Amino acid sequence: MLALLVVAALVAALVHVYIFVLETLRWEAEATRRVFGTTAQEAATTRPLAANQGVYNLLLALVAAVGVVLLLAVRDGDAGPALVLAACGSMLVAATYLVATDRTKVRAAAVQGTAPLVAVVATLVWLAA
């Protein structure tokens, strides 16, 4: 279960680093605009908001990664699982909110939320064992 937890949390972190890159570094690029369904004008107008959101995604990724490192370094400690649950739980809530507020974003929510869901469940099962 520990291996599944670690892999899922790290995949979740990598997905959120990728989202950070899109939202913060490549927001106005044509390929990114296609992903998010925005026009050039909308992307230019919303760039500061997207960059701010991207930073949040990067921070969630970092918290998940630090949680994994602590989990592997101190297997009996509470900090690692707590950080994984906090980061991946937040990612999962964001994915749920995305699909709940816009049914056309099911695919994006699945990409954003599947690995965090697996990480949360695996962490809870690992803690219960």
UniProtKB/TrEMBL annotation:
Superkingdom classification of source: Bacteria
**Is Transmembrane among this UniProt entry's keywords?**
yes
TM ranges: 55-74, 81-100, 106-128
Alphabetized, the UniProt keywords read:
Membrane, Transmembrane, Transmembrane helix
The answer to whether keyword Membrane applies is yes
The protein's name in its UniProt record? DUF1304 domain-containing protein
Please give the organism. Xylanimonas protaetiae
